[in-house]
Amino acid sequence: MFYLLHLILLTYFTGNIYTLAEKYPRSEKNGQELLLCRKCGADVADSYYLFSKPSPGAYKTEKQNIFGQQNVTVQTLVNPFGINFEVVTAEKARCDNIGPNQGADSWFPGYSWRICACKHCGQHLGWTFEKTDSNAPKETSENIKTFHGLILKNILGENFTDSLIMMPNMYRM
């Protein structure tokens, strides 16, 4: 009798766990998606923290629907050596900042920069920009002291990587 009651309770609670999990499917994250290092897959940022920080020196600026967000500002920035980078800006990112702050050749006036590298594998992900000039243009929402410029070709969205993993037909139900 005890085992039968135990089996009924276990079945009941296990069924509720599955029901609760199905109420919140993975796709319902309000457009949020993790951004991953293209080289090793480590978490770099959450798309929730993407924001528009226009650079006056951008070669090209456009809006794209990427990383589960709509109208993300993608800028083509060119360094002094003529190398183009498609960059998105994020308020927060997980990266190691390498070297001292550099004020020269900053794409964002009033901000110095350092290389932003993946904490896991050291891949160059972009740059961290830190406010150096109190006279820099004021932001519309708040005065942002630090932000990151992430190179699009060096990051991936988690939903894209999930789409690459396919289940063999023999295992599909």
Task: Write up what this structure looks like.
By secondary structure, this protein is of the alpha+beta class. It has two domains: 2-30; 34-161, Metal Binding Protein, Guanine Nucleotide Exchange Factor, Chain A. 17% of the residues lie in helices and 39% in strands. It contains two helices and eleven strands, in the order αβββββββββββα. The protein has helices spanning 2-23, 158-164, and strands at residues 34-37, 43-46, 50-51, 60-66, 69-78, 84-90, 95-102, 111-118, 124-131, 146-151, 155-157. Strands 3, 4, 5, 6, 7, 8, 9 and 10 form an eight-stranded antiparallel beta sheet that branches. The chain starts with a helix and ends in a 9-residue tail after the last helix. 23% of the residues are buried. Keywords: Metal-binding, Signal, Zinc. This is CULT domain-containing protein. Residues 32-159 form the CULT domain. It holds the Pfam family Yippee-Mis18.
Give short descriptive properties of this protein.
alpha+beta, Metal Binding Protein, Guanine Nucleotide Exchange Factor, Chain A, 2 domains, 3-stranded antiparallel beta sheet, disordered N terminus
In short:
The protein is an alpha+beta fold and 173 residues long. Helices cover 17% and strands 39% of the residues. It has two domains: 29 residues; 128 residues, Metal Binding Protein, Guanine Nucleotide Exchange Factor, Chain A.
